[in-house]
Amino acid sequence: MKAKKRRQYNIFTALSVTVLVLYAISLLVPLAWVLLASLKDPVEFRLSPFGFNKTFVFSNYIEAFKSFAIETLEDGKKVTVYIEGMLYNSLVYAIGCSIISTMTNCVVAYIVARYSHFRFTKWIYAFVVFTMVMPIVGSLPSEIQMAKTLGFYDNMWGIYLMKAYFGGSNFLIFYATFKGFAKEYAEAAKLDGAGETQIMFQIMLPLAMATIGAVFLLAFITYWNDYYAPMIFLPSRPTIAYGLYRFRTNTGTTSGGITVKLAACSILIVPILILFICVKDKIMKNVSIGGIKG
């Protein structure tokens, strides 16, 4: 009987590993193709877009770096923003939004988990779950109008305030983390005379620092790749992702333009790839089945 269960377990493990390997290959193959195609001569790319490189043309990267610039309107005047300006905007946008969204979800999730016996906190939890399963469409015009009315439009600090909302998977991750902490920590601190604010900031949040760091890093990657919100709410502060979107539409449609576009895509992958390599151990250490461990 044990041998049969062990055999079934081995078969399940082999199938799971096979599926994961195939999934990893499906992610790596497009990246490899983009890298190789970005190093092709335009004529070679037109004749053999999916073949292996006969030559490696690094001038595509030089051309992409030089021509990576877009024009925006600032105070009614046309302004050209180059790659260094878009890089700065991306860092400011991604870091600020990641901090705000991570801490908002963290604090609200702690309150809901800490005072889960109150009806109001149960309503908050139910509201989060409801917004995740129910599709909400058609809200963009009202968001733009509200942002303009409140002075948040084309304002980086305004965008930060717009990101100060809770909900989604990050809220559930923090909720599960705080629910998993033993209540004895808070009770012992109370006996020592600590208030609720001290318990939260001096005890519970430091215990959840690994989870906070992992969620922040994942949020940073998300906001770094986000071009939609900057395109709509920050028209005069283009980020790298938005610049790549504009660059793709403005470079042209020739095969030479395609190789330059692919080179630009490869350039923009480098910062986030370096970040992931530096912190991958921290992310993978805190990610487990069903969530992120505290």
Could you give a quick summary of the protein structure above?
The chain has helices spanning 2-38, 42-47, 59-67, 83-114, 119-133, 140-150, 156-162, 168-179, 184-191, 196-207, 209-224, 228-233, 240-250, 255-286; strands spanning 69-74, 77-82, 287-288, 291-292. With 294 residues, it is mostly helical.
Task: Give an overview of the whole structure.
A hairpin with a 2-residue loop joins strand 1 and strand 2. This protein has helices spanning 2-38, 42-47, 59-67, 83-114, 119-133, 140-150, 156-162, 168-179, 184-191, 196-207, 209-224, 228-233, 240-250, 255-286; strands at residues 69-74, 77-82, 287-288, 291-292. Residues 251-256 and 288-294 have low confidence and may be disordered. The chain is built from 14 helices and four strands. The strands form two sheets. A two-stranded antiparallel sheet has the order 1-2. Helices cover 73% and strands 5% of the residues. The chain has 294 residues and is mainly alpha-helical. It is globular, with a radius of gyration of 24 Å. Helix 1 (2-38) runs antiparallel to helix 14 (255-286).
SS elements, strand count? 4
Helix content: over 70%
pLDDT averaged residue by residue: 81
Computed CA radius of gyration, to the nearest angstrom: 24 Å
User: What is the terminal separation in angstroms?
Assistant: 37 Å
Q: Find the structural class using helix and strand composition.
A: mainly alpha
Order of strands in the sheet with most strands: 1-2
What is the strand content? 5-15%
SSE succession: HHHEEHHHHHHHHHHHEE
What's the tally of helices?
14
| Main beta-sheet annotation | 2 strands, antiparallel
Which word captures the global form?
A: globular
Low-confidence regions = 251-256, 288-294
